[in-house]
Design a protein that fits this description.
This protein is an alpha+beta fold. Helices cover 40% and strands 24% of the residues. The chain is globular. It binds (3R)-3-hydroxy-3-methyl-5-(phosphonooxy)pentanoic acid.
């Protein structure tokens, strides 16, 4: 926010980070996945008027000013221009969108989707339109597709809806009703990992051995269904063993690594009810299911095992 009291934003929006509870990778092959928002980290957008026409995105964290009418290939320009087309606006007024994010980048926490979501939703408001979550999600998905290969759409969906979701590729999404909230720790291996690389590796192995990989995906589908039932019936402790089983399957499909395995075992040894990698794998983050009583001990154990950052989130 600018310190000039006379220059207040005319619209603001925020979007959370996300993590995948179950179903990463298998979701690309049509298996249901569960993803949840992470409220402790978020992207925010504030829209200010400016005297000259055209929209400038001030990406504060990147120290970049993107002129959306001339920097046409920039993802944030594409997002802005797609929105203008969607709204039927050809000559936008003078606006500056100040974008900031506390979501770690390239860590599988949905930072790209959150930044685009905040941008689109604040800009739409500034232009006099209130878009629903489905429309925002679709607009964000167009940008995700351009920069992330063949994404399933799970990131834009959970981030735009900002609630736990039961997600099946190309199907109507179902918000997930959590009957009892649960605590999750998200720990970063510190190893940057490109989801697109991990997804391509799974694709290659799947094509080399379709029957085996289909069996892994079917087993993951079963875990997603069990986790959904456990969340909906209010028995989150039953989730723990499902995490552990999923981690074994993710190891078998080749997307875990030594750093992730070390954090997973540190968490379970320190009393987590279950732990698994989350997202693309080969680095990035893992998640641990904890209770109020074990948050601190498991956090310390994760830090001692090499986690570069531990985020606590409460899923409700
Ligand atoms: O790395 P993330 O959290 O963006 O995870 C992507 C999840 C995958 O299933 C691996 C890919 C996808 O597009 O769904």
């Amino acid at each position: 926010m600018r310190h000039d009291p006379l220059h207040q934003p005319i619209a603001t929006a925020a979007a959370p980070g996300k993590f995948i509870l179950h179903g990463e990778h298998a979701v690309v092959y049509g298996v249901p996945a569960i993803a949840c928002p992470v409220d402790g980290v978020q992207a925010t957008a504030q829209v200010f008027t400016k005297d000259t026409p055209g929209i400038v995105v001030d990406a504060v964290d990147l120290n970049a000013q993107i002129r959306t009418q001339t920097d046409l290939d920039h993802p944030l320009s594409l997002a802005t221009n797609n929105l203008l087309t969607h709204l039927g606006i050809s000559a936008p007024p003078g606006l500056t969108v100040k974008l900031q994010s506390t979501i770690p980048i390239a860590a599988g926490l949905g930072s790209g989707a959150a930044i685009t979501t905040a941008l689109i939703s604040a800009l739409a408001q500034a232009l006099g339109h209130q878009l629903d979550a489905a429309t925002i999600s679709n607009l964000v998905f167009e940008i995700e597709k351009l920069f992330h290969g063949t994404p399933s759409g799970i990131d834009n969906t959970v981030v735009a809806y900002a609630q736990p979701v039961w997600f099946i590729r190309d199907k109507e999404l179902t918000p997930l009703k959590t009957n009892i909230p649960f605590h999750i720790l998200i720990a970063d291996t510190g190893i940057a990992s490109e989801t697109v690389t991990a997804v391509a590796g799974v694709r290659q192995r799947f094509e080399a051995n379709p029957a085996q990989y289909q069996a892994y995906f079917d087993a993951i589908a079963d875990l997603s269904h069990k986790a959904k039932a456990s969340i909906e019936t209010g028995d989150p402790s039953a989730l723990g063993p499902l995490f552990n089983e999923n981690q074994r399957l993710l190891q078998q499909i080749g997307v875990s690594n030594a750093a992730l395995d070390a954090l997973v075992s540190a968490a379970t040894q320190a009393g987590a009810l279950g732990a698994k990698l989350s997202g693309g794998g080969l680095g990035g983050n893992m998640i641990a299911l904890v209770t109020q009583d074990t948050i601190d001990t498991v956090t310390t154990a994760l830090q001692q095992a090499g986690a570069t950052r531990v985020i606590h989130t409460y899923v409700q």
